[in-house]
Amino acid sequence: MNFLRRRLSDSSFIANLPNGYMTDLQRPEPPQPPPPAPAQRQPPQVPSAGGFFSSISNAVKQTAASAGLAPQTAATERRLRHLLVIDHPQIDWAKCFRGKKVHGDYEIRVEQAEFTEINLVAHSDGTYAVDLQMVRNGTKIDRSFRPDFVLIRQHSFSMAENEDFRNLIIGMQYAGIPSINSLESVYNFSDKPWVFAQLISAYKKMGPEKFPLIDQTYYPNHKEMLAMPTFPVVVKIGHAHSGMGKVKVENHYDFQDIASVVALTQTYATTEPFIDSKYDIRIQKIGNNYKAYMRTSISGNWKTNSGSAMLEQVAMTERYKFWVDACSEIFGGLDVCGVKIVHGKDGKDYVIEVMDCTMPIIGEHQVEDRQLIADLVVNKMNQILPKSPIPSPQRPTATQQPQGGMLKDSDQTKIPAQRPPPQGGPLEPQGLQSDRQQPLQHVDSQRNHVQDALIQQQDPSTSTFKQPHLGRSSSTTGEVETQSGGQPNVTQKAQPHPQLNKSQSLTNTFSFSQSSFFRSAGSQDEAKAESIRNLRKSFVGLFSD
Question: Measured between alpha carbons, how far is residue 188 from residues 197, 216, 242, 268, 371 in Å?
């Protein structure tokens, strides 16, 4: 203020201004040309370190998402549960889970692949990742993700196809991934004699009447295949399924030949008495759903699962239900399992085998059975997977305007009126409007300080006078009462006011300064009176436009 007073007290200040400077201030601002059509005015962005690293992070996330290494967004990831289905690609399990959700909020993303297309790495701290490398429709797909649940529909160990994927089952158990059936049971089903040992335990508990298990002999290798069983017998070599590795032996000569074959395979073998069957019964259990099918050979093959056979669904009896329930309790419980029964021509039933979740779906209700498995998986996911809290929506940081209705007069007196945007131009953000208002507020503040300096030089006896308030435009009326402390008390009526012109206020300020304040007077009293009179005239001229 002292610098401003000294500068304005110099009589040569106005005279030294460039020619046409005052007229330029009085000239209205020319209208701004409209912005080009393709480019829109945007608020200036200040580069920051956080924005730079954020852009790099977003680029990395997008690249990883396109490669299948990471989800696209964190919000999307929170709303998804990844399900790994291990099965042949001929069956599309994604259709079975379409529209199903976990805990009512999380969608299920199905990733289906075979054991040959899967690899994984697991750490002791619970972190793991499953890698998929597969070819679909001639396109190679590489994807890495973290499954929340696994549905196993393929044999992890198959001597028929010479494939052993028990190392993947161990890795999933190491990572602690829940599955159907349990990974423990899937690993235990890798050897059929190991499973049959569990049936022997049930047979010993319930007896032959309640649980008619077929007789079986186990040979760890070919060297022990010397005892002559009762012929004819069925020799099962190693862990074979689907009718493979089974040979019917009529006499001991053929039995010795089969023993030499077992020597080449370097594996174990089992023998069972041949049952002249009338038909086979396949009992399946999916959760709490039970079905029984009867299969009768048409081609005359002693293997009803080979050649031509007739399949029909039969009634589910209490005896069938008891057998499948007893078999479903092994290895800590089986959610999906099946039991094979041979009904001989002697009228007796024999339990010969139990299957796990890898059992084939047969019959006329295959679509229904797959849907039952899908429902069972969703129920298990609801039970096992934790229910994460739903993230609350983020609250807006910007100040929100009151919704609906007009502001009351009392509220308008408390909230300062905002200046409207310049007419004819696009709307600007609130931050830019505040930046444009700061120079104008600075000019108004300097003008008020100059007026305070003029008022302080008046006669102390003149303590009150009415004048328009300098902080308002001509449309706003108010009354200013100057107290002894020099601070005005403002009582205003809340009315909207247009924007004050910057150049006009500066021109009027310089006008009264040149005509009255900087003109020397003969005496101090006459100078004060002349200053007051010219000050009032300046106020009238300032607000008369």
Answer: 11, 19, 18, 16, 26
Using the 8-state DSSP alphabet, how is residue 213 labeled? B
Q: What is the mean pLDDT of residues 49-75?
A: 52
Query: Burial of 254 by CB count in 10 Å (0-12 exposed, 13-18 middle, 19+ buried)?
Result: middle
Query: In this predicted structure, what is the pLDDT of residue 487?
Result: 45
Name residue 470's amino acid.
L
**Residue ranges with strand state E in 220-335:** 233-237, 246-249, 269-273, 277-286, 289-297, 309-314
pLDDT at 362 over 80: yes
Q: How far apart are CA 454 and CA 326, in angstroms?
A: 105
Which of 85, 107, 111 is CA-nearest to residue 98?
A: 107
Residues 6 or more apart whose CB falls under 8 angstroms from that of 545 comprise 474, 504
Q: Is the pLDDT of residue 367 over 80?
A: yes
CA atoms of 72 and 64, how far apart (whole Å): 8
Contacts for 355 with CB less than 8 Å, ≥ 6 apart: 337, 338, 339, 340
pLDDT tens digits, 472-512? 444 434 443 444 444 444 444 444 444 444 444 444 444 44
Cα 335 to Cα 183: distance, rounded to the nearest angstrom: 12
Dihedrals φ, ψ of 144, to 5°? -130, 130
Note whether 151 and 185 are within 8 A (CB). Answer: no
H-type helices in 228-365, by residue range?
A: 252-265, 318-327
Q: The tokens of 424 are what?
A: 């004819």
Average pLDDT (49-70) is 52
Q: What type of residue sits at position 509? A: T
Q: Do residues 273 and 263 make contact, with C-beta atoms less than 8 angstroms apart?
A: no
116 φ/ψ angles, rounded to the nearest 5 degrees:
-70, -15
In this structure, the chain runs to a length of 545
* 127-133 mean pLDDT: 94
Closest alpha carbon to 129 in 151, 111, 146: 146
pLDDT tens-place string over residues 314-332:
999 999 999 999 999 999 9
Quote the pTM value: 0.59
Q: How many CA atoms lie within 13 A of 100 on its CB side?
A: 25
Q: Is the pLDDT of residue 458 over 60?
A: no
Complete DSSP assignment for 410-421: HHHHHSPPPPPP
Per the CB < 8 A criterion, the answer to whether 503 and 525 are in contact is: no
Question: What is the rounded distance in angstroms from the CA atom of residue 255 to the CA atom of residue 249?
Answer: 6
Predicted local distance difference test score (pLDDT) of residue 490: 42
